[in-house]
Specification:
Strand content: 35-45%
Oligomer: single chain
Structural class: alpha+beta
Radius of gyration: 20 Å
Length: 191
């Protein structure tokens, strides 16, 4: 699903990275083409190639991605999106998305959780899927934090950071901000 925000973010990311785009291929329907064609031309200074045959374009996208990954295709800004949200379980067993569906990757997002009591060890399960209940989704990893500086009775501020790199690799880090202790980055899986 294309939007003005996604087009603007693509333009801003390319500009901030110093990437010179000389060809822009957009897969969408005719309605969205006419809705965003002028915006694309204004921002990028060129006409984009608009395509609507989804099956052919998915295959072409796979071919381009494979070429980029093997190094055969150069000077291509390959944008992918995360298809399913990634998050943590919160009260009531619900999934709190930290990275939502259709977020352009690479990306890094954080969520802060406050705890009143607990032990010196804490673990967080990371889930990926579209169900609103965490345990109905795929468990993609668990990150554990052992904090020997923990002081009982003191509120803990934990920050979970999830990072998805440009190849779709997912990693995470858990930080106890109340005493500045953090885990090493942990690889989970590929999106």
């Amino acid at each position: 699903q294309i939007s003005a925000e996604k087009i603007y973010n693509l333009w801003r990311e390319a500009k901030s990275c110093g990437i010179n785009i000389d060809r822009l291929l957009i897969i969408t329907n005719d309605y969205q083409r006419f809705q965003y064609e002028d915006l694309v031309e204004r921002l990028f200074g060129m006409k984009a190639e608009w395509h609507g045959n989804l099956h052919q374009l998915i295959q072409r996208g796979r071919e381009i991605r494979a070429g980029v990954m093997t190094g055969e295709v150069k000077n291509v800004l390959l944008l992918s999106v995360i298809s399913q949200p990634i998050g943590i379980e919160i009260e009531g067993g619900l999934l709190l998305p930290i990275i939502v569906s259709n977020t352009t990757i690479p990306t890094r997002k954080s969520e802060t959780v406050f705890l009143d009591a607990g032990a010196s060890e804490f673990s967080v399960d990371i889930w990926q899927g579209k169900d609103c209940y965490a345990r109905e989704n795929d468990l993609i990893g668990t990150v554990c934090l052992k904090n020997n500086l923990y002081q009982p009775g003191k509120q803990r501020e934990l920050e979970l950071t999830i990072d998805i790199d440009s190849t779709g690799g997912i990693s995470c880090q858990l930080t106890d901000k109340s005493c500045n202790v953090e885990t090493e980055w942990m690889s989970l899986k590929y999106a």
